[in-house]
Amino acid sequence: MNGVELLDDALRNKRFLPTGCDGIDTLLGGGLREGQLTEIVGPSSSGKTQFCLYVASNVAVKLCGSVVFLDTSNSFSPTRIASIVNQIFGPAVKEVFFNAFLTLSLLNIAFA
């Protein structure tokens, strides 16, 4: 399979996961690709973590999906994501959300 065929296959057979931000979904051609790792980069304090937590909340709640959050700095804050979920979806959704959310830090992976 060549590169063009791989791209064509990916476009036909992969679902898009909406980020919850229409403008970003448009830029990405429909959202994030299901089954692919997406790296978010930018300067310090530019909103990368906030965006990732928002997208994770959106996917877990609206699509009833499971989310894996890879935390490379061991700084995941359940309180912060609970606040985001509460603000966007309300307090009743928090328990359902946390049942679908898995976070892995490099320490967890290294010692697993």
From TrEMBL:
Query: Top-down, what is the taxonomic lineage of the species of origin?
Result: Eukaryota, Viridiplantae, Streptophyta, Embryophyta, Tracheophyta
Under Pfam families, the record lists: Rad51 (PF08423)
Q: Which SUPFAM superfamilies match?
A: P-loop containing nucleoside triphosphate hydrolases (SSF52540)
| GO BP, one annotated term | double-strand break repair via homologous recombination
What Gene Ontology molecular-function terms does this entry list?
ATP binding; ATP-dependent DNA damage sensor activity; four-way junction DNA binding; single-stranded DNA binding
Query: What keywords tag this UniProt record?
Result: Nucleus
Sorted alphabetically, the Gene Ontology cellular component annotations on this record are: microtubule organizing center; Rad51B-Rad51C-Rad51D-XRCC2 complex; replication fork
Q: Could you tell me which PROSITE patterns the record lists for this protein?
A: RECA_2 (PS50162)
Q: Which organism is it from?
A: Dendrobium catenatum
Q: Which part of the chain is the RecA family profile domain?
A: 13-112
Could you tell me what this protein is called?
DNA repair protein RAD51 like 4
* Subcellular locations according to the entry: Nucleus
